[in-house]
Amino acid sequence: MNSPDTTNSDYGMRTPRVLSIDDSELMHRLLRARLQLEQVELYSSTSGEEGLRMALELKPDVILLDIELEGIDGFEVLQRLKEDARTRDIAVIFISASTETMDRVRCLDLGAIDFISKPFDMAELKARLRSAIRVQQLLRMLSQRAQLDGLTALWNRAFFDQRLATEVTQARRLGHPLSLILTDIDHFKSVNDRFGHPFGDEVLAYFATILSSRRTTDIACRYGGEEFAIILPGVSAAAAVEVAEDMRKGFEAHTWRRHADLVLTASFGVADLTMISSTGTPQDLIARADLALYGAKRSGRNRVSLEGVPLAA
Amino acid sequence: MAVAVDDSAMREDDSQPAPLHPEGGHTPLRSRLADDPEMRELVQWFLGDLERRVSAIRSALDTHDAARLRVLAHQLSGSATGYGFEEIGEAARRVESEIRFITLHREASPAADDGLEDEVQISTLAEKTEDLISVCRRAIDGKRGAA
Question: Which of B56, B84, B104, B105 sits between 20 and 30 A of A130, alpha carbons compared?
Answer without folding.
Answer: B84
